[in-house]
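Design job #97: recover the sequence.
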């Protein structure tokens, strides 16, 4: 029997992939987004709307069996917009779900809520220690979700690592572009840190499990990430090797490079935000034991699988003009970083 599911952020990479999966499984799916996009699933229905419009969201959710809240802002957005979309948007979606009598709402959060933890692998009971506007908004949105969970709604909270797959651009487009042009690629420090990522298909599998698990299992908080991952240097080198130009990852001295990147970021000349800079200097991975044990989540793809699949998709699908990083589908403007490519 088909289940009615509402997916917010259906034009984003995760939302669009999830809609396609759920509709392909035979469910009655309604995608909601402020910005419709071409290439939507013919097996799903779509509505244009702002998730902060609670009366509209209530109408759209009436009769639904579940909602998956994927809509969010990116770290590149202005601070006030980040909070409005992530915190106010989450409050509106869950309030609408409550009013419409939707029994289950899957909230897509982020491991960014941990800030820059020194404990790795980081477990779900690690304190939320946000360090910037984006991570603070994600942490506050989780508090909203936990409030509705405490009041009786089944609210699974998923905390994914950075996810990759067809359609993902952002800062990865810089690596892909430089690799394709036959350039070496700069690496902050030696690149010997272990950075866990995640394939989009594995994240979608986790969402499906959160939708179908018994309420006693689903109504919890879960880290979601790859099980097989190595160093950032190895992952980036795999892309350079796939490009076939014989180029290498080039380590840069960490301290002066961080100083330059921080200055460029503050002046708007670099898309590399500060939390990302410091995340690349230390191991960053979470424990997925809880998701494995309780949800039955078992990631199929490694970091390298995910990044190489994304690179292959990028090669086969020429990127449209950048919109400056408004979505994860956009190739972010490289700013001053584009000027130094001649050195590599």
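Job complete. Output follows.
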């Amino acid at each position: 029997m088909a289940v009615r599911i509402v997916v917010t952020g259906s034009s984003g990479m995760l939302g669009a992939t999830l809609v396609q999966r759920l509709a392909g499984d035979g469910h009655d799916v309604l995608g909601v987004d402020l910005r419709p996009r071409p290439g939507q699933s013919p097996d799903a229905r779509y509505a244009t709307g702002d998730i902060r419009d609670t009366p509209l969201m209530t109408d759209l959710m009436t009769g639904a069996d579940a909602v998956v809240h994927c809509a969010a802002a990116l770290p590149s957005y202005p601070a006030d917009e980040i909070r409005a979309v992530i915190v106010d948007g989450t409050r509106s979606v869950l309030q609408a779900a409550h009013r419409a009598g939707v029994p289950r709402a899957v909230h897509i959060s982020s491991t960014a809520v941990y800030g820059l933890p020194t404990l790795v692998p980081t477990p779900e009971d690690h304190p939320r220690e946000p360090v910037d506007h984006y991570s603070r908004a994600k942490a506050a949105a989780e508090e909203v979700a936990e409030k509705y969970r405490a009041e009786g709604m089944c609210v699974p909270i998923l905390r994914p690592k950075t996810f990759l797959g067809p359609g993902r651009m952002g800062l990865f487009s810089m690596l892909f572009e430089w690799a394709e042009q036959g350039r070496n690629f700069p690496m902050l420090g030696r690149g010997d840190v272990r950075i866990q990522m995640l394939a989009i298909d594995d994240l979608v599998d986790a969402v499906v499990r959160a939708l179908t698990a018994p309420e006693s299992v689903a109504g919890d908080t879960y880290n979601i990430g790859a099980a097989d991952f190595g160093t950032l240097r190895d992952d980036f080198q795999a892309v350079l090797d796939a490009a076939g130009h014989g180029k290498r990852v080039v380590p840069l001295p960490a301290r002066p490079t961080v100083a330059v990147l921080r200055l460029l970021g503050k002046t708007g000349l670099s898309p590399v935000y500060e939390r990302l800079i410091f995340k690349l200097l230390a191991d960053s991975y979470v424990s997925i034991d809880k998701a494995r044990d309780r949800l039955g989540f078992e990631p199929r793809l490694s970091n390298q699988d995910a990044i190489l699949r994304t690179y292959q998709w990028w090669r086969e699908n020429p990127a449209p003009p950048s919109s400056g990083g408004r979505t994860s589908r956009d190739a972010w403007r490289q700013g001053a970083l584009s000027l130094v490519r001649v050195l590599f």
